[in-house]
Amino acid sequence: MRYLRYGPAGNELPAVLTADDRVLGLQEVVQDIDGSIFDPSARGVIERAIAAGSLPEVDLDDHRIGPPLRHVSKIVCVGLNYDEHAAEADMSRPAEPILFMKAPSSVCGPNDPIRLPPGATTVDYEVELGIVVGRRSLYLSSCAEAADAIGGYTICNDVSDRHSQLERGGQWMKGKSFPTFAPLGPYLVTADEVDDHQNLPLSLSVNEQIRQDSNTRHMIFGVVHLVHYISQFMELLPGDLICTGTPHGVALGLGADAYLAAGDRVETRIEGLGAQMNEVLGSVTST
Where are any strands of DSSP class E within 48-118? Predict the structure, then answer.
């Protein structure tokens, strides 16, 4: 299944992309797309409705696409999970996964604008494979259990203000949690639709110039290992998001001129999971 949500921010409706590329509204059969979508009974209801031809078709040209998950309870991020990225950041290859959190309030739609924080001049981009947890998981005993706990995958751009992250002391989440700093989607693709999560090309361009171009096979710690490892430190809930780290090519390694500025356009892709397109806008006043 390839789930998505469409409509105004805060009032999105659930939908599914069918094998023949039709978008069908799901509001008549499920309340929304969240962790409950991984319940086998929910999937059965959706499959029967598709087969019966009872779902309305949606023209996405008329609608904004929202993040594919409602109310993500937590976002767990993995730092320095590609060798060349660790090298460009002038940091050592980690012996264990480096974990940090990103505020759920940073999530936005896959094509929503990225808003610069006031005065920020070091805002960076990071294309990442996002794991969506499919069941409650704590102290998983094996990688086989971890594999079974994966509900699906999505694209996340882990937008980062490097000054706040690296020069303000303390946790990295300071530079990671501003509003719009986690464009998500466009789809939540269930695990059974992804043949090999450890062989997915991923890329990011700024103003049509490729900055990142790699493959998930270059991860230091693989997808299943990460789920198993993280479950040793916290309980993972259905619908939680794990961002698995970014490859090389970020602005931090390219120099000051590579950081995002108002007017830039950022395109993010992962094979089989879709694409994002975000315009960078200046800061807004406090709310």
Answer: 65-66, 75-79, 98-102, 107-108, 114-115
